[in-house]
Predict the 3D structure of the following.
Amino acid sequence: MTGEKKFSNKNILIAVDESENARRAVFYVAELLGGIEGFEVTILHVIPLPEEDFFPTASEKEKWLSQYRVKIDAMLEGYRQILIAAGFHPNAVSVRSPTRYCPSMAECILAERDEREYGTIVVGRQGLSRTEEFIFGSISSKIVTHARNCTVWVVE
Amino acid sequence: MTEYLSQNDLREMTSRWLPPHKIPCRFRVHRDTTEFFRVEYDDVVVLGGQTYLIRHNAKELRFGLEDEVKFWVKRAIDLTDGSLKILKLVFRERFVANIGDIEFECLRSPRKEARILNLVADSPNFMHGFSVEDERGNLVRVLDFIKGDPLSSHVQRMDIDHQTYFYQFFPDVLDHFMDCLRAIYFLHEHGEKHGDIRRDHLLVDSDSGHYRWIDFDINYRHRENIYGYDLFGLGNVLVFLVGKGDLLLRDLKKQGHPALSTLDEEDLNMVFNNRVVNLKKIYPYIPDSLNRVLMHFSKGTTWFYENTAQLLEDLEELRNAA
């Protein structure tokens, strides 16, 4: 344990998408920690680099990506406003939407966590069936299994 | 510049490979394969300066039903050297696949298959070929014909009881299948998916004896785990090979199999609930170590393989211990 890096637990990462589960995760943090000083929150949406096979041309892909970014920026700002309305200082809430190659979304989220040293990851549970989890995987389950040196909150 | 081919030229080229009575009176030549329904038997397709005489459309067996004709996939003879080829013309298909009650978007991608053909050119466990654009820019894949049957037929046709199969033939089958797993691992390590792993997409090459993956033009929108659907396919094939075929509940009922009363829901395939995965209950001589691997694909599992490396590791361990 000696020398092992510990991240401050007041630095929180909420991994979101457009789902109701993600929204619940944001509201949970807002209700629990809104108005309490010292906490800094980053709302993260990792944009998975789209596979070229799904687009007839490179320019179609770029067009899709820029439209998607506009949509995500609006989503993230909406989540940010939820936290500010709950009492977080505007300077304490930031948003991130990096584009990454993502064979595993959970690994991409954990990579973000490692790079920026968050002490807590918050994620909404997707409510997948066992079959879906079996074939397509579960982001929250994988984060819980693979996260190290941090706390994980899975919001139902 | 497109080289002009006269009817005499084509007749002469064809006569090198076909007996006189099979040579068409007149050849229709296609340099644009966009309308693949119009490319028919005895037509000629010219691609990248090479000339191919079209034979039958390929067919695919679907779960024991009548063969489905794939009009965009043509058998052909390369008129340069007489070799048998498969020409996969461009069919831009998007569809929603169903696995149990899960729906996910799939598409047929010539570009994907062309990319993988380049990647696996040196691997004995994949079909080989190259891609070339026709006059309209359609990306046609020209594949070397593999002489051999699907692995599923190869295994099911063995006219022996399961115990004999398991002790005398399955070790070799497993070794070959593990080569195929390593091949899929190679794909995954290079950021590619097979996309349509099925027991009839593995052919037993009768010339080399290798098991070879075919038909990797399907791509699917993955969710958390890009390789999950491939892994699911690999698990299904493995269970099939261990069982020397599917073990269906209805067949066990018909036979009045004594093990039937010992089976419960957790012993069945996660998705195909009529298939038994806990094969040790039917064939008690299956080692626990192997059965444990199979059970990771059952409804009762509490842990799923996340990647091909984990599945390979478990199989290598039990194979080395044998």
Q: What stands out?
A: The first strand of chain A starts at residue 11 and ends at 15. The mean pLDDT of chain A is 91.
